Every structure is written in structure tokens, then in C-alpha cells.
Amino acid sequence: MIHMNRHYSDLKESYLFFRIAEKIREYQRMHPGKSLLRMGIGDVSLPLCPAVITALHEAVAMQGEKKTFHGYVSETGDPLLRAAIARHYQKRGVDIREEEVFVSSGASDELGDLLDLFDAASPAMIIEPAYPAYVDASVIAGREILFVSAKEENHFLPLPDETSDPGIIYLCSPNNPTGAAMDRITLQRWVDYANGKDAVILYDAAYVAFINDPSIPHSIFELPGARTCAIEICSLSKTAGFTGTRCGYTIIPKELEKEGMNLSKMWTRNRTTKTNGVSFVIQRGALAVFTEEGQKEIQETLSVYRANGRVFTEALDALGVYYTGGKNAPYIWVKCPEGKGSWEVFDELLEEAQIVCTPGQGFGESGEGYIRFSMFADPDDTIEAARRLKALWKK
Predict the structure, then answer these.
(1) Where would I find the beta strands (DSSP E) of the chain?
(2) Angle at CA 265, nearest 5°, toward 263 and 271?
(3) Where are the domain boundaries for CATH 3.40.640.10 in the chain?
(4) Which of 73, 170, 207, 301 has CA 20 to 30 A from 374's CA?
């Protein structure tokens, strides 16, 4: 007799982006001549850089010749790519070894799959507002969730809850959705806390390419003690425009052990059991990201999104509204004016300014009263959205 995973019934209805899409469709049906400025979605708007495109073409051509054809690749990643990622860290002064790098099909996949390493009895600590996948993956696994509230009073950067006893701690810095980024002192508090609780931090570093402030670490492994308590999950989606190409990587230090079990060895066994690895062609494209030419080209792209952030934060500064993010992150988390709800403000911006944002309520109860703007939009759209927002909210 089959028994289903009843924890799927515990999932809250994921209606955020469905509801947004429905509202947009209805608006466009009623106003067919109006164009929208889409500042809500977290997808990139600029194409892959030339170095990556060239590498992808070359890899495809290799697959068409018997002498250069590649079938299965290593489940843990192409050795060339793993070595290139390790060197990338080493250039920043972080001692990461090739065998500690695991190539993945993206951060979202890893954030859920890594839960295989931990018994379901290990509670997960999640800072809310949160990327919804943290919560849903934990619910599906039947895991207890310990929420820590991020709010204006703590600048959306809460400190650990000493009264709780987590097994897993989800941290995201720079954060999605709030854009808040932990400085070294704050992140060190979390590292020390995790070691003290014998917990493991799942560190989502998807947006580190946007950090400009030297007080904010690019990797949790810059901090003392992190190698005995942390796994770092990285993505090329926002760093290099791989949202539709799908490639990322995970760092698991060799010395990370719990209850006499080595997590790096466990993850190697997991990958060799559950996956045949990431496409050879995609990995060759990813390898180009870490070349000198690739790094130069992706910085040119990232500079466009950073400029979008400056345009939007200048408008918000002129309005005098509270926000976080935008300076070291591609998201801006804005307090709704006049105590309004996030869906109410969403509707006002859509109807009166044709701007699409994301209501904060969709990221958990702590997100109510805020909206999120994405800086991945077209630059001209961003400039126009900032102008319209200033005009509307000045009223």
C-alpha cells in the first residue's frame, strides 16, 4: 500500500505571482493601450556576455565531432570548472579547494536538495521575510520551522535567537527580498551562534556580485569558524545572466562534520546517486564566466543593474521614504506610505503609474507593509518608473 507525503498538504497556497499575473492580465484587458514598467520580477533583462556565448557555441560544436564529443560528465562538476571557481575564491583571499566545489544546476535546486543531508527532526531557522523556497522545502520535508523576524527596528538584519535550538539555519546576504546585507560583525555573530548550537548554516550567496561595501563579506568563508558550520550556495543566474541557462555551485568544506559524518563525502554520494551532473555545454559556458575576459564583461552588465539601483534609491531618498537594499543588492525593499498594505500599494502603482512591484506579504507575515522593487529591469524603464513613483508619492 502506498503512503503519500502528507506534508504537501501543509504548504500554504503559493498564489503570489499567480495573483500578480492575474491582476496584470486584467489591467491590460481593461487598458489595451497602456504599457507596464515591470519592476517586480527577479529575472534579468540583459543577455549572456559574449565570452559565454562563444564558449557555448564552441562546446556545441565539440559535441558534433567524434574526437571532441563528451557524454556523461562528473556528477560533482567538470574538474576545469571546479578548479576555476576555487581560484576565483583564492583571488579574494579565501582558501577554497577544488574538491570542495560542487557544480549544480542552480541555487534554488541546491537549497532544497541539501536538506537530504539532515534528518527531518533537525529544525530549520528562517529569517522572515524570506525567499519562499526556504519555507516550502522545509515544510515538504516535515521539518519544524523556527522563524526569526526581520523588521525596520533591526534594519532587516536580526541577530540570532539564543533561546532557540536550530539544526539548520538559512541565511541570505545580500538578502532577497529585503536587499539588506550583513557586515562582518553581524555575520560573525551567526557563525559563532551556529558553532555554539552545533548547527549548519545554508548560506545563500546568490547576490554577492552586487556588494560594493568592503565591510560586507563576499563569502561566509572569509570569517573564522565558518568552515566548521557552513555550506555556501552560489548562483550564476544574477551574476552572469544564467537564469535561463541554469548553473551554480555549492561549497562544502572538507572539515565540516556532524555526528561523526563528513558532509562533503555525504554530498558526493548524494550527487552520484541522484544526478548525472550538469550539461557539459552549460558548464563550458560557465567556465567562461571565470576567465579574465568573462569577468570584465559580466561587470559591464552588472554595472547597468547597479546604475538602476542608484536611479531608484535617489528617487526614494528625495521622497524621504524608508527602504533597504539597492546599494549592495539588486532588490529594494520599500515601506508602504501612510501605513497602507502591500497589496493596496501594488494596486495603486499598477492603476495610477503602470508600475509592477512585488507585495511584501508574499514573503511572509513580516513582509506586510512593504513592497519589493527589482533592479534587473531595462534601464529606460527604471528611469521612467522612478520618475512616475516620485510624481505619484509626492502627492
Answers:
(1) 37-38, 101-104, 124-128, 145-149, 168-172, 200-204, 230-235, 248-251, 257-258, 261-262, 323-325, 331-335, 355-356, 358-359, 370-374
(2) 100
(3) 50-290
(4) 170
User: Which residue do the cell numbers 516550502 mark?
Assistant: 136
Q: Does the model's pTM come out above 0.85?
A: yes
Q: What is the mean pLDDT of residues 218-241?
A: 97
Q: Which CATH architecture has domain 50-290?
A: 3-Layer(aba) Sandwich (3.40)
Fold of the domain built from segment(s) 13-42+294-394: Aspartate Aminotransferase, domain 1 (3.90.1150)
Give start-end residues of each CATH 3.90.1150.10 domain in the chain.
13-42+294-394
| pLDDT for residue 221 is more than 80 | yes
pLDDT in tens, 138-163: 999 999 999 999 999 999 999 999 99
CB contact set of 144 (below 8 Å; sequence gap of 6+): 123, 124
